[in-house]
Amino acid sequence: MNARWYRLNSFAPLLKCLPSDAIMATYDESSGQKYHIIRELIPADWVRFEAHARRVKELLIRTNGLGNIHDLGLSGSDVSIVAQHFGDRPVLPNLQRSENEFIGWREEIRLLLRCPVRTIRLDYRRDPELYSGALTSELQLVRRLDTVESLSMGSRLPIAHQLSLLATMPNLSYLSIMVDDQRGSISWMSDLAALPAGSFPKLRTLQLSSVAMEWYRSSTQAVSTLETFLGAVKSHMLFSQLVVRFHKSQSHPEDYADELRKLCSCIARDYPTLESLEIVTLCMPITPSVVSPLCALRNLHILRLPWLMIDPRPGTIQHFASSWPQLTELQWGTRYESSQGALTTIATLRAVLDSFPGLEVLGMQLDTSSTLGRRAFEELPLGEVVQHRSLLSLSLGKSYISEDVIEPLALALARMVPATQISLLHVSPRRQSVTEEGVLPRIVSRMRELAQA
């Protein structure tokens, strides 16, 4: 074991640092391998134990196939020995992150989870109704950890019902909630009115996610649940960053679009001072009309809509630009399909850069594989291009780039971005989405050559 920070999913590394005559290992199918302290530990043993414990920064607890907690490596009697030695002191004094894939902690976890833990994730993939009492108990423990800054509640936990337990956490700045409509999340929202004044005093980021949509009769139920939740907490949770994520959908596209438009209206109405918004719809692409209510959010600095279908017409892009004048990061991007074909071309990229002069980070997709996409290079008057001097990062992930446009695309990008900043430009492709592996790195390389010429 070296002197660097490391993560644990077992007490075994700590116990193995003790002399061999002080410990003994046993194994059984129900609880797995455990280490037992078989003699009284002397001061030198504890010095060695504590020296190793101070190096632990992350504690990642997993479950076995039956959902049983395993591999913590301490028997019940040994927990008492360790607890008696440490008293009120934390066993892992530098622990900052704890990720637990279960509810119903054993005593050894309670012993470990003391300040200064900063990040906690709770998850459980079995029936949460069987563990509602355990969840309440564990949240009572979590809320007493004053140093916790980030808390994620994973799949299928009825956290909305228990939210009041977390409201007074003094340093909680990031809260992630998985909403499970199948378990009646909408009916639980009535409890949120009981949140005390001054709830979540330092909350900055709220992330709401839906479980896999195949568990629903329709994804519109999940969207409705999130809308209800946001409406219920609007006077209690003064966050400035909101992330909303959906997964697979079985809904009719028109029904889903209508519900998502209502959600966008709810966000714009109830959270007009939002500074950062991300909506990820893995279910299906969304059209500009669906997110048009978001134009009321005049304070946005960061907007991520990776499944938004871009309408390349100058009027549409300029309308969005006038609505979000302070944007420094914009992520959007599936190809806009119409009767004319895929229209997200280099001309669209130029229109976006011209319309959002303050952008530092831009993520979108290009299509140069179609006839229309290749023709865009011929129609673009490169000599008139104004360089975009604030752009630091450009992501072209999932772009469709053909071999024959490497040179003109590199030339176009080089003229859009100042030569002094091309070295700072970050192009991050996803290989499986590019027509030919290695195309984008070659474009970046060619851009740098052009800048030096």
From TrEMBL:
InterPro entries: LRR_dom_sf. This is F-box domain-containing protein. It comes from Phanerochaete sordida.
